[in-house]
Amino acid sequence: MGDTAVIVGGGIGGLAAAIGLRRVGWQVTVVERASVLDDVGAGISLAANGLRALDALGVGKAVREASRGQYSGGTRTPRGGWLARMDGAALEKAVGTPIMGIPRATLHRLLREALPAETLLIGSEAGWVRQVGPGVVHVGCGETILEAGLVVAADGIGSKVRERLFPSHPGPVYSGSTVLRAVTEQAVDLDTDFELTWGRGAEFGHIAFRDGRAEWHAVLTLPAGTRFCDPLAELRRRFRHWHDPIPALLGATQAEAVLHHDVNELRPPLPSYAVGRIALLGDAAHAMTPNLGQGACQALEDAVSLAAALASAPSTEAALARYDAERRPRSQAVARAARQAGRLGHRLAHPVPVTLRNTAMRLTPSRAAVRMILRHHEWSPPHLG
Fold first, then answer.
1. Hey, what domains does the chain have and what are their CATH numbers?
2. Which one of 20, 23, 165, 229 is most buried, by most CB atoms within 10 A?
3. Strand partners of residue 146
4. Which one-letter DSSP state was computed for residue 384?
């Protein structure tokens, strides 16, 4: 059973793991409870580390062709003043690529297309996962039991597999922020590829796509579970005095397209990403706040690192130990940095720290800003063969 794997969860991380494992010779089944694998969502930014992971999986070229480079933009105040400008060309020179913006659904489709249809077991929920003997793990899907030599739990922030492996862990906790987001129905006239605007206790940002549409997101500091009868109308009210193109982005959006989710994270971090022949990957292992745009990129790194470890280690157990040793320190450090970025960004509300932060950002040289970004973007994938 050593070359057969079941992946629980058919999101970006799960599909990437399936591609990686197949590239190193494993037979893979992806179990996904959704009846339609379209990964509805807004947009995603892919930094150099995520793009390199996609290159290692053989889908980087297709993803780049469907993406738009983020060369212009930066961070602004609600009145439109610039706190920091993005130098996409300098970043590209440093790491070989700009950050790329792509609709999440497009990325998901490209990953699905890299897998044989028979790999995907759609509309089937993994009710339980159990190691039943040396090298054998069972996954219960209704009345069907799948047997494998490895199970990869990529079932998201609410992972049921993680709950069973670590019953004493408190699980995901509310970060203090809630996010509303959507993709515009039609193209929008934008002067920049990417922007963040920080107000007191709020953030608004956009990512421009290749087809002229854009993803926008609004982050609000509110109690967990807060919801609005008319989310789009509420955002138009809250952001009515913020700079262009924020009103235009909201005006180009259909009310039914708006998604609203509380931002949760895993805190404290997990003590391990592997137990027996079961590995945790992506949000199931290290769900983080989106402030650095690294959630999906870290999941992609996980997928490549896991496949490489399985390809070269003397045993599956040794491979999972190596995977844990490589991935846990890095991904948990990125999660801490993302949390800190949120505290220094939209979470600030008092005028004095907001003024101090804005002044510091305006005085930070562009080269220093690029160096800070590179701390997380610089990652070289292992060779998958």
1. 4-69+99-173+265-345 (3.50.50.60)
2. 20
3. 139
4. -
pLDDT at 91: 85
Under the phi-then-psi rule, with left for phi > 0, alpha for psi from -120 to 50, and beta for the rest, what region is 136? Answer: beta
Round to whole Å and give the CA distance between 231 and 273: 37
Is residue 341 within 8 Å of residue 348, measured between CB atoms? no
pLDDT at 2: 60
pTM given for the model: 0.95
Q: Is 94 exposed, middle or buried (0-12, 13-18, 19+ CB in 10 A)?
A: middle
- Give the pLDDT confidence of 248-276 residue by residue, as tens digits: 999 999 999 999 999 999 999 999 999 99
**10 Å Cβ neighbour count for 201?**
17
Nearest CA-CA partner of 59 in 3, 10, 9, 12 = 12
Burial 338-353 (b: 16+ CB within 10 A, else e): bbebbeebbbbeeeee
Number of other residues whose CB lies within 10 A of the CB of residue 128: 12
Question: What's the number of CA atoms in the CB half-sphere (13 Å) around residue 342?
Answer: 21
Alpha helices in the chain (DSSP H): 12-23, 48-56, 60-65, 88-95, 104-113, 160-165, 231-238, 246-251, 283-286, 295-312, 316-344, 351-363, 366-377
